């Protein structure tokens, strides 16, 4: 595996509790927060790899941990990485206030991606999103939108594997499986013979969460950076021998079901729906490869 991107899930905590969230983020999300020391350690490991060029800070909502976020951005940029942030812009109560939040980041970011859709407010472009967009313009911070269409109105197809999401359909994993299936059309389960969204053979970028898990897809891990160095995880990656990724590569979610001879429904909303529900069934058997429980809706406080 030749990693070019590291995306930090700074925390699973968020100011919103969106129906489509892959990782069950919410104000009540259980779990920790990546400390500055931990981020520092992972950044140094990423630098040692020699292939990583891009670092993103995401969540949950990374601005909830603002001083750590700012220091982490500065360090990542000083190490030579291109740095981006994904945020819901809850902090942009006015343009002037948004500039206060963003000014320490000006000159250090190549991208500020803002969640802008009806999962995050009554309008696609909320006042907070517009404020942060204008503040970014004034400060010279490249700013764009991430828009996820509701399943009852979206007819768009998937983006290229591993590509940033700038406008796409709901993927039925995480909270979407509980909240949004009633709005989705379903197709025969036997059609889902590949993963259309992630390049599992050579992921390129991974997500690292507060527990140290290294995700190639949310809840599908290749190890833990707190237990094994990132360089070892990358160089020793053997997708064919991974108990979940191997079957997925051989024939998508259908192959995963067949490999473990699992019961299934006749129809699913998309490949993620079949894959996620199958992985949730398999999680007690493979708790280190299908982790953490947060991403499968386990142990959450409501």
Structure description:
There is one protein chain. The termini are far apart. The protein is 28% helix and 16% strand. Strand 3 (82-87), helix 3 (95-102) and strand 4 (111-115) form a beta-alpha-beta unit. An 8-stranded mixed β-sheet has the order 5-4-3-2-1-9-10-11, with helices on one face. Strands 6-7 form a two-stranded parallel sheet. The protein has a two-stranded antiparallel ribbon with strand order 8-12. The radius of gyration is 19 Å and the shape is globular. It is built from 8 helices and 12 strands. The protein has helices at residues 36-49, 66-78, 95-102, 127-139, 175-179, 230-235, 245-259, 271-282; strands at 5-9, 54-58, 82-87, 111-115, 143-146, 148-149, 168-169, 187-188, 205-208, 213-217, 220-224, 267-268. The protein has 302 residues and is an alpha/beta fold.
Element string (H = helix, E = strand) = EHEHEHEHEEEHEEEEHHEH
Major β-sheet strand ordering = 5-4-3-2-1-9-10-11
Rough outline: globular
Number of helices: 8
Helix content bin: 25-40%
Report, as a whole number of angstroms, the end-to-end distance: 38 Å
Assess the beta-strand content as a share of residues. 15-25%
């Amino acid at each position: 595996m030749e990693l070019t991107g590291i995306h930090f899930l700074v925390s699973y905590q968020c100011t919103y509790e969106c129906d489509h969230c892959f990782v069950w983020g919410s104000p009540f999300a259980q779990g920790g927060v990546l400390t500055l020391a931990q981020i520092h350690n992972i950044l140094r490991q990423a630098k040692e790899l020699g292939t990583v060029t891009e670092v993103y800070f995401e969540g949950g909502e990374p601005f909830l941990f603002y001083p750590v976020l700012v220091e982490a951005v500065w360090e990542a940029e000083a190490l030579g990485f291109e740095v981006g942030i994904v945020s819901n812009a809850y902090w942009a109560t006015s343009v002037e206030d948004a500039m206060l939040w963003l000014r320490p980041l000006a000159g250090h970011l190549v991208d500020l991606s803002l969640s802008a859709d009806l999962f995050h407010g009554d309008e696609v472009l909320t006042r907070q999103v517009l404020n942060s967009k204008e503040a970014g313009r004034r400060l010279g911070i490249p700013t764009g939108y991430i828009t996820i269409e509701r399943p009852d109105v979206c007819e768009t197809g998937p983006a290229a594997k591993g590509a940033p999401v700038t406008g796409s359909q709901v993927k039925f994993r995480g909270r979407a499986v509980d909240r949004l299936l009633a709005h989705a059309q379903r197709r025969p389960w036997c059609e889902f013979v590949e993963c259309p969204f992630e390049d599992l053979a050579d992921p390129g970028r991974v997500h690292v969460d507060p527990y140290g898990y290294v995700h190639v897809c949310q809840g599908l891990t290749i190890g833990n950076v707190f237990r094994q160095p990132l360089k070892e995880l990358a160089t020793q990656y053997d997708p064919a021998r991974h108990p979940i990724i191997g079957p997925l590569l051989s024939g998508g979610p259908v192959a995963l079901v067949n490999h473990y001879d699992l019961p299934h429904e006749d129809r699913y909303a998309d490949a993620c729906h079949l894959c996620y529900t199958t992985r949730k069934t398999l999680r007690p058997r493979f708790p280190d490869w299908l982790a953490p429980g947060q991403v499968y809706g386990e142990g959450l406080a409501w």
